[in-house]
Design brief:
The structure is a single chain. The longest helix is centred in the first third of the chain and has 4 residues. It contains 1 helix and 11 strands; from the N terminus they run βββαββββββββ.
């Protein structure tokens, strides 16, 4: 069973910053596409940012210019640097790993942005 371990969530004021981390299994990390999703109650989980095994990135329009996804294959870790946070960024953030048709999810970490 592949495990993704997330950390870094918490409570922050609007305009503040947080960095999320997600550690994945060494055996497949470097060849997997990694992503961060978020979900609020009653809504579908949505893609926030993703990075391919080759380093290409993709962002949701709502976070472009504020969030940065990066990966460190030596540490088997993907990061999400979140700056200029807004109350509407409040959600549970999930780490995702994709290798071919197979996807794995972390347990989620709560991010709360107060106004």
């Amino acid at each position: 069973q592949v495990q993704l371990v997330e950390s870094g969530g918490g409570l922050v004021q609007a305009g503040g910053s947080l960095r999320l981390s997600c550690a994945g299994p060494e055996i497949i990390f470097s060849i997997s596409a990694m992503g961060w999703y978020r979900q609020t109650p009653g809504k579908q989980r949505e893609l926030v940012a993703s990075v391919t095994s080759g380093g290409s990135t993709n962002y949701a329009d709502s976070v472009k210019g504020r969030f940065t996804i990066s990966r460190d294959n030596a540490k088997n870790t993907v990061y999400l640097q979140m700056n200029s946070l807004k109350p509407e960024d409040t959600a549970v953030y999930y780490c995702n790993s994709k290798l071919g048709p197979v996807a794995y999810w972390g347990q989620g970490t709560q991010v709360t942005v107060s106004s």
